[in-house]
Batch of 2 targets.
Target 1
Amino acid sequence: MGVFTDLIDASDDATAAALRRVLDTVLAIVPDAVEDLSYGTPALRYRGSPLLGARVAKAGISLFPFSPEVVSALAPDLAGFSISKGTIRFTVAAEIPDAILRRIVALRRAEIEAAGGRADDDRAEQGRAEQADEQADTAAPAEAFAAEAVAGLVHRHFAAGVALAGAFALQFAGLLAERWHFFAEANHPQNLYYQAIA
């Protein structure tokens, strides 16, 4: 068992059957595939590279072949399905036909083998950007969502955070200088009060 199997187990019956069909198809074509996470997505890996990932969303199931080339090569056969650069979306009412699913897996396996086992990092980066859009409306565990949200905020807003930290440090230094001046000169209202009652 692994993360892909866990996704199947956590899904409703119809979605679980569709995901089981995907898993069985992949393992029939690539028996060496192993379950793992890729960019926070339950996936199957082959020779250390992501082969095919899946996410369950409100609108259906998203498949990630981690390759825009695979999706564009099969785009004519995927008429009627929602596709984007690295994603193929389908529902349990309208599943991807077996022949096309087998071609997706075979093409991706060929890419991984041609790359010497590891997929090109550029292709994986393109897939990650596509998955970030998908993850906004998926039913992911709270911990994974929180970790990805924090990482995204840190990455996107690092410069703003540095500027905010700098402004805070400057303000704090000014406050300390002001207090030092008032206390050193003995003109601070608290000093005057204590001098008057002493």
Target 2
Amino acid sequence: MKTLKLNNKNIGLVAIMVKLKEISEIKTGRNYDEEEGSEIKKVNPESITQKGSIDLSKTKPVSGADLKKEDICQKNDLIISIVGPKNKVGLVEDDNLVPSQYCVNLHFNNEEEAKDVHEYLLSKEGQEKLSKNKTGEALPRISISDLKEIDVPL
């Protein structure tokens, strides 16, 4: 949010709404072969807490053999679960994490925007927007194209 000024006087906070696709690169996760002892960890929906952190004890080590550098999340990226009834959004704070096929990675060039979007998507309004875009009864899912179109405030 930005403070709006008129004649050098603050008149309040103003949120500029932008689509996720305008401020982030959205990359789909995939199914990786598990490999004990690997430093690279796969994040599943159950690895993401409702409070928005990533529980490393619930990640799985995966083989790095077929990974590309761009597959690995960077600090301050977001990992969002796209399958299941719960809308989970985790902020990446550790190295060597990759999203599973049930998640996507949102990469931001601006760390502050990433944290603002993370906070917003965890809010009641953000959770409602994610839920509204899910389809399917047995296993609700949000499409990448719908996720890209979600408006978020900056």
